[in-house]
Each structure stands twice: as C-alpha cells, then as structure tokens.
Design a protein that fits this description.
The model has no long low-confidence stretch (mean pLDDT 95). The chain has one domain: paralog of FGE (formylglycine-generating enzyme) (Alpha-Beta Complex), CATH 3.90.1580. Helix content is 21%, strand content 15%. The strands form three sheets. It has a four-stranded mixed sheet. Strands 1-4-9 form a three-stranded antiparallel sheet, covered by helices on one side. Strands 2-3 form a two-stranded antiparallel sheet. This is Sulfatase-modifying factor enzyme-like domain-containing protein. It comes from Microbacterium maritypicum MF109.
C-alpha cells in the first residue's frame, strides 16, 4: 500500500495568547452551563500568558484510516478499521508517536506530535478567539455532539471551521494527542490539580471529538483520555514537523 501524502501548513513564528484569564472562568461556566462542565475544568486553562512559539508545520487534517492502514501493513502494527477518508480513532499515545516516527522516516521529515502550545497556536492564531473560526460557536463548522451524527466524518469536511492558518478539523471529529504531559500552567490557581491521576494517559489532548459538547471545541480547552476505551473517547492524531529552513 502506498504511503499517503501529508499536506503541511506552515505556521509562522508568533506569540500565542495561551489559555484563559482567571477572571473569565465564571462567565465561561455560565456560557456553557448546558454542558454541565464545572468551573474546575476551565481553571486548568488559567492564567492567560503570552508564549512565543517558533515556526513549525502542522498537517492540514488528522491522520486518516487509509494512512494508518499503510502503516499497519508495512510494519505489522495494529490494524484499525474504519472508512479510508475518515480520521483514525482509538489510537493510544504510544501508537501515535510510533506512527509519527515511521511516517517521518518514509518521507524524510521529523514528523512528530505537536506540543500543546503549537496546537493552540495553530488553532488560535495571533488573537484570543474562542474557536478556530472566531469568537462565536456556529453549528455546522465542526463535527461535535450538537450535529447528532454520532461518528466521524471525512477529514476536511468542514472548511468553514478552518483556523486562521487554514488548518482543518481543529474542532471536533477526533480529539487529538499532543506530546505534552499534563501539568498546571505556571501561575495557575492552587486548586488546579498537579496531576490527573484519574486519566488513562497523562498526555494532553485537544480539539474534542464527534461525541463531545461545544466547550471542547474552544481553542484554550485542555482535555485528556479520561476513559480506557479510546475508540469511545474518539482519540486520533495529527502530525507536526519543524519548519522548513530558508536560506
């Protein structure tokens, strides 16, 4: 099976306004009251901090079932069923990093999982937008629970939900692994847990999946694998790589 092409998006160096100001948490809790999310979950996003993020590349869409099948066929890795053009789901963090290393070796690039800061930079751009497309949630710009589909859709099927850099599916469809281990942000409130020992894996995920409410589509929302069944959770992956050096 032929290795699938990766369409990279160049994300320029810039300053990410990471996270959420502490004084906005009460308003967030009210705004998304219908989801039942407690304030403690949002407090993990605090404080808002400017973070310099070097240039990098990010795949325009998540890894698909077809791309994973090529990997499984070539390496004997676990086969994962699904529709070719849909994102692969149920991938563990260790499987995701192994895939990134393999596809990087095939393509001659340093493919890897994005850091949490890189992911938010690609989703949010240069401002403090709430969602990849702007400040207001719009049904139909992401495959989330409100659409009622109950499953994945082809990658890139929601072009109006693109981030400022043109990256697709950063909200909904699959929750995406990052390379970052969960820890409170520096300066977070004392009641933010130092570890999430109830999580099935300690790494941060971002973006939310088809099964999640709209609060998971927020650029600042920090999530994780809180169930052992990663298919049910809807966790997939997206690749990152270093920026191409210019003369």
């Amino acid at each position: 099976m032929t290795v699938q092409h990766i369409e990279w998006v160049d994300i320029p160096a810039g300053t990410l306004q990471r996270g959420t100001p502490l004084d906005q948490i009460d308003a967030l809790t009210v705004r998304y009251a219908a989801t039942g999310v407690p304030p403690a979950w949002y407090r993990k996003e605090t404080p808002r901090t400017p973070v310099a993020v070097p240039a990098f590349r990010l795949a325009r869409t998540p890894v698909t079932v077809a791309q994973w099948a090529a990997y499984a066929e070539a390496t004997g890795a676990r086969a994962i069923s699904g529709i070719d053009e849909h994102p692969v789901i149920g991938v563990s963090w260790h499987e995701a990093t192994a895939y990134a290393a393999w596809i990087g070796s095939q393509l001659g690039v340093d493919a890897r999982l994005p850091t949490e800061d890189e992911w938010e930079r690609a989703a949010r751009g240069d401002d403090t937008r709430e969602f990849p497309w702007g400040d207001e949630y719009v049904t139909g710009r992401a495959n989330l629970f409100d659409l009622g589909l109950g499953t994945t859709t082809p990658v890139g099927a929601f072009p109006e939900g693109a981030s400022p850099f043109g990256v697709l599916d950063m909200a909904g469809n699959v929750d995406e692994w990052t390379s970052t281990l969960y820890a409170p942000y520096p300066g977070a409130p004392d009641d933010v847990p130092a570890v999430e020992d109830w999580a099935a894996d300690p790494h941060i995920t971002r973006g939310g999946a088809f099964r999640h409410d709209v609060d998971l589509a927020r650029c600042a929302r920090r999530h994780g694998a809180y169930e052992e069944d990663l298919v049910a959770v809807g966790i997939g992956l997206r690749l990152a790589a270093s920026a191409i050096a210019t003369a």
